[in-house]
């Protein structure tokens, strides 16, 4: 965390009045003290979460013993790109997910670091298949292997832009000639079809786990996040099996109204 | 800023106002979010919890909304977006939908009556979403308040009604397509009808990402999104705009939201400001 001063902080060069200077420095002191207290609070929360995670991993908390993993039909994991370079940590995380019985997984980081290390990651997993291969062989419903999809920011808004061009070209192709032309009018189903036509067949995840400093989805495809539950797991270096189990258990107890 | 009533402020209200000012003078030593978005979740659960009559939760929620907007205005936040009504909400029971529409009309008409106060505070009110789905009286009232406050700029209140992100994305594709057609000026047969020949398709340049972004309903993008009731999903809201946005889900139901939640979201924004700015730069 790197605190940057705001508009109040940038007034220092223009302060001539000694009283104004004193009050500026006093406010800066109060602001930094506030943030120090907040940081200490988060430190204590992290320690409690680590202890809780350890207790859950050891099986001492019975509540998280049995997980209804079938409720997680599609799991997505977003990793901060800088942290994604810790490939061994990523592989350990995926092994936990595989052991828990998750059948479909999407791994995302905005810069595509995980995509670059796809081969290494897939070779480390016991029984996993790339998502594209599963789609090609039409074995998505086959529960024997975990499918893994790799995504980056180019699979989000840029993919939607490519799908937009597919729709636009289709519109041009079928526009009537000689008679009044209708204006472009598309539907969400047509956008779905356009995305599938250019190779984006991944479904909407039920649960998205964010490993990084901030609770932010970092550009995961906007088209696939409508009702996805998003849980912030903290930095990847502090990941533990207990927190993962707790997040999945919590998800299995959520009820959605879907706006009704 | 006192948004409502002409009553003389009480001592406690004045004391609260000055204490808030003191708190803001500390918070503004760091960066303040330009845009905060809200999902008003929990009105019905609040009504059930407190055994209120039908609609009581929404009324309490409206009062909470006024307070939160006051805090944002006082803190110097420039934009606030409220998820007032989703396209999905039309699937609720008809009397419930009608109640919300009637409440919306009542509040918009209230804003029209208080137009001079809204203009005095330099607040711009904009309704965004698929407004064609609104009933005529609500649409007319919304257009009226938008026209009346169009020139205001200190604080912009965006009310997302008849809105979903997926509908917004499709709308952006439609508008970008129309822009492409207009820029090629192919209407040439004198009767006003447009004729497109297959051989004229080639000169069209592709729709670019920046064009889609320009045609979304909501700009600029929010820095913080607050969804109450502890729910951790976006429910088809601002999916496009939240790439670099902090998502905050306090457990309080919407009518229970207070200054402490707004302040906590600003503190977390300040903690992660550098990280999110770096990520924005990378994606440009």
Automatic annotation (TrEMBL), chain A:
Membrane-spanning intervals of the chain: none
PANTHER family: DEHYDRODOLICHYL DIPHOSPHATE SYNTHASE COMPLEX SUBUNIT NUS1
A Gene Ontology cellular-component term: dehydrodolichyl diphosphate synthase complex
Source organism (scientific name): Hevea brasiliensis
Record-level Gene Ontology MF annotations: ditrans,polycis-polyprenyl diphosphate synthase [(2E,6E)-farnesyl diphosphate specific] activity
Subcellular location: Endoplasmic reticulum membrane
Catalytic activity of the protein: n isopentenyl diphosphate + (2E,6E)-farnesyl diphosphate = a di-trans,poly-cis-polyprenyl diphosphate + n diphosphate
Chief location bin: endoplasmic reticulum
Required co-factors: Mg(2+)
Record key words, sorted: Endoplasmic reticulum, Magnesium, Membrane, Transferase, Transmembrane, Transmembrane helix
Keyword Transmembrane: yes
Protein name as catalogued: ditrans,polycis-polyprenyl diphosphate synthase [(2E,6E)-farnesyldiphosphate specific]
This protein's pathway: Protein modification; protein glycosylation
Automatic annotation (TrEMBL), chain B:
EC code: 2.5.1.-
GO molecular function: ditrans,polycis-polyprenyl diphosphate synthase [(2E,6E)-farnesyl diphosphate specific] activity
Gene this protein is translated from: hcpt-2
Enzyme class: transferase
GO biological process, one term: polyprenol biosynthetic process
KW Transferase (keyword) present: yes
Higher taxonomy: Eukaryota, Viridiplantae, Streptophyta, Embryophyta, Tracheophyta
Classification via SUPFAM superfamilies: Undecaprenyl diphosphate synthase
Protein name: Alkyl transferase
One GO term describing the cellular component: endoplasmic reticulum
Keyword set, alphabetical order: Transferase
Keyword DNA-binding: no
Similarity remark: Belongs to the UPP synthase family.
PANTHER family xrefs: DEHYDRODOLICHYL DIPHOSPHATE SYNTHASE COMPLEX SUBUNIT DHDDS (PTHR10291:SF43), DEHYDRODOLICHYL DIPHOSPHATE SYNTHASE FAMILY MEMBER (PTHR10291)
């Amino acid at each position: 965390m790197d605190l940057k001063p705001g508009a109040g902080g940038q007034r220092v060069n223009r302060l001539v009045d000694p009283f104004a200077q004193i009050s500026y420095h006093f406010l800066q002191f109060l602001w930094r003290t506030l943030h120090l207290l907040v940081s200490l609070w988060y430190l204590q929360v992290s320690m409690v979460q680590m202890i809780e995670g350890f207790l859950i991993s050891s099986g001492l908390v019975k509540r998280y013993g049995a997980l209804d993993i079938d409720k997680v039909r599609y799991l997505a994991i977003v990793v901060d790109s800088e942290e994604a370079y810790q490939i061994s940590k990523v592989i350990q995380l995926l092994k936990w997910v595989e052991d828990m019985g998750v059948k479909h997984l999407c791994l995302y980081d905005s810069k595509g670091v995980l995509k670059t290390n796809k081969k290494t990651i897939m070779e480390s997993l016991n029984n996993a298949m790339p998502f594209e291969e599963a789609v090609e062989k039409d074995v998505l419903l086959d529960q024997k292997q975990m499918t893994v999809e790799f995504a980056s920011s180019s699979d989000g808004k840029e993919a939607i832009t490519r799908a937009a061009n597919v729709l636009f070209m289709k519109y041009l192709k079928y526009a009537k000639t000689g008679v009044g032309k209708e204006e472009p009018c598309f539907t969400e189903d047509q956008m779905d079809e356009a995305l599938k036509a250019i190779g984006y067949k991944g479904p909407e995840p039920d649960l998205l786990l964010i490993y990084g400093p901030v609770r932010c989805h970092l550009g995961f495809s906007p088209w696939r996040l409508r009702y996805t539950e998003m849980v912030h797991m903290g930095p990847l270096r502090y990941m533990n099996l207990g927190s993962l189990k707790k997040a999945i258990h919590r998800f299995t107890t959520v009820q959605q109204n879907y706006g009704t | 800023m006192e948004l409502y009533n002409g009553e003389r402020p009480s001592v406690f209200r004045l004391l609260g106002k000055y204490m808030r000012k003191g708190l803001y003078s500390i918070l503004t030593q760091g960066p303040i979010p330009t845009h905060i978005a809200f999902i008003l979740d929990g009105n019905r659960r609040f009504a059930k919890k407190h055994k209120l009559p039908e609609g009581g939760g929404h009324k309490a929620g409206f009062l909470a909304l006024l307070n939160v907007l006051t805090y944002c205005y006082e803190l110097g936040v420039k934009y606030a977006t409220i998820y007032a009504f989703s396209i999905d909400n039309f699937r609720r029971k008809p009397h419930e939908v009608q109640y919300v529409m009637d409440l919306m009309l009542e509040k918009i008409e209230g804003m029209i009556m208080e137009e001079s106060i809204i203009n005095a505070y330099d607040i711009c009110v904009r309704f965004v979403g698929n407004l064609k789905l609104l009933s005529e009286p609500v649409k007319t009232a919304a257009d009226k308040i938008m026209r009346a406050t169009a020139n205001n700029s200190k604080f912009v209140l965006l009310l997302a009604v008849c809105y979903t992100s997926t509908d917004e994305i499709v709308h952006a594709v439609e508008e970008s397509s129309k822009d492409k057609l207009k820029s090629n000026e192919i209407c040439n047969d004198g009767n006003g009808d447009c004729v497109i020949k297959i051989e004229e398709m080639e000169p069209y340049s592709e729709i670019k990402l920046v064009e889609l972004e320009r045609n979304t309903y909501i700009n600029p993008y929010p820095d913080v999104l607050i969804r109450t009731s502890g729910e951790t999903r976006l429910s088809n809201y601002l999916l496009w705009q939240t790439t670099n946005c902090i998502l905050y889900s306090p457990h309080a139901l919407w009518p229970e939201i207070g200054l402490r939640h707004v302040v906590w979201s600003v503190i977390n924004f300040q903690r992660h400001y550098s990280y999110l700015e770096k990520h924005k730069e990378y994606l440009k």
